[in-house]
Batch of 2 targets.
Target 1
Amino acid sequence: MTELVFGYHATESLIRQRPGHIQTLMVQADRNDKRMQALNDLAQSQGVAITRCTKSDLDAVTSGRHQGVIARLQQGASHEAAGQTSESDMMAMVVAAERPLLLILDGVTDPHNLGACLRSADAAGVTAVVFPKDKSADVNDVARKVASGAAETVPWVRVTNLARTMEHLKQAGVWIIGASGEVPETLHDQDLTVSCALVLGSEGSGMRRLTRESCDFMVSLPMAGAVSSLNVSVAAGICLFEAVRQRRGK
């Protein structure tokens, strides 16, 4: 199955980061605006093959909102092109970082939410995003589109045993901080200036028992309204940028 990346920001990031992994760039022939011309110029400068198509041709390739551009990836190039890293390389990044900040997602099965989390993680400058191989969304074409290029820039790793990975992070000096709506301590009370990983579960069932038990601390997001929880990608953004706020103030 041919892997696709579609949408302006996702394809632009891919061309800049991994042009050699693109088989061909399919662009809408009747799009002549400055934005598309800039993308065409970038692709040509990177030696990327361009195929001009009608909008109906692009619509037939993907049901997603392609914005007039779709990148077909070379066979076997999708994972590397998407920013995936190995667990060992991720641990090396953690050790090398002065104060690593990680995002751990347990049970996020919607690729839209995963893509939004990657986008927030990139904006917050996280060291890496970690999520399990089982019962989790993958970084597919939908997730990449929502991530708006972040899937190609922020390191992410799928692990076999999430609890074991969390233990390895602890041994490397990383504090594991889980988010849950059932605890009295709030996010704002927690020191996030230390080396830490923020853990979020799914909206439905939250994080799994072993994941929760592997956390050093549990915090909640203060909720003033009638709803009891937030979308996981919204919660991830709030948690990450509270860490950014605290770190900038120290």
Note: The chain has two domains: 4-81, 87-248.
Target 2
Amino acid sequence: MKICIIKLGALGDVVRTTPILLAVKEKYPDSKIIWITIKSSYEILEGNHYINKILTLPLDLDNLGEFDILYSLDIEEEATKLALKINAKEKFGYYDNGGFPSAFNEEANYYLNTVFDDDLKKSNRKTYQEMIFEICKLPWKKQKMSLFIPENSKHIINNFLIENNLKNKKILGLNIGSSKKWPSKAWHKYNIIEFIMKVKERGYEIILLGGLDEKEKMNEIEKDLLNNNIKIYSKNTSNSLKDFFALINICNIIICADTLALHVALGLNKIVIGLFFCTSSYEIEGYSMLKKITSPMLFDFFPAKMDQYDEALTKSISVDEVLKFI
């Protein structure tokens, strides 16, 4: 059984699509899986023992051969056009139909409709994973996300702990960023500072998690806290997603918005406090590890104004609400 998966991005969506790997192996134990993605997503999948081969675009389609099953799980044109070119006996998911995504199978229509129908998106109570499994006609049994951390990344982060005297300490990872596409996903800087000052009293060491886009904000937070004699930590993992995974893995608790960090942390079986400002918490599978806090302003922005920045929205989840879960 030869199976092809097309899932290009975004990074968090690639992570939360990985549960289908276990489901495929449960249904087709002797299957060989080829996953087609883009270079920026490659590292997420690298080392995954369920995947026989990872291919990145652009592709030489002549050498792919025929597949028994294609799971085409992106609705973007690059992926849907590729799905038409893949030779497979059965196809599930999406293909390009004159510049618009269409469904190969009836089960794929629901997810597609949530993308374009705001009322359905508001009323939807299915998680992303449930919808993906529905598309693929695979039984959903809350299969876990599948992530791999290499030994060199574990070693790098272990050295970081030793250098900062953080071994055997209670560590809280606070992811402060959001994608540029959704600027109101991130908690406001002032809330973050107030939270850190209060949670430090409970004996936690704080590691700020963020990428290059958050560097300035991270520096501002560290400076403001140092002025109050509070030391926090950060580690640049922007050059390696695996190092980022390893950094999350040494934390006892992760606090973050609806971002890549949330999905990675759940994939690593971490306790996660998720802050939802402008995206639906219903779409997030929490695996009994996620504590969800939703802004009272969410439906003022979700889904039509998700891409707008609003300062009041980013402040609308209070510090005390989050502290209740610590």
Note: The radius of gyration is 20 Å.
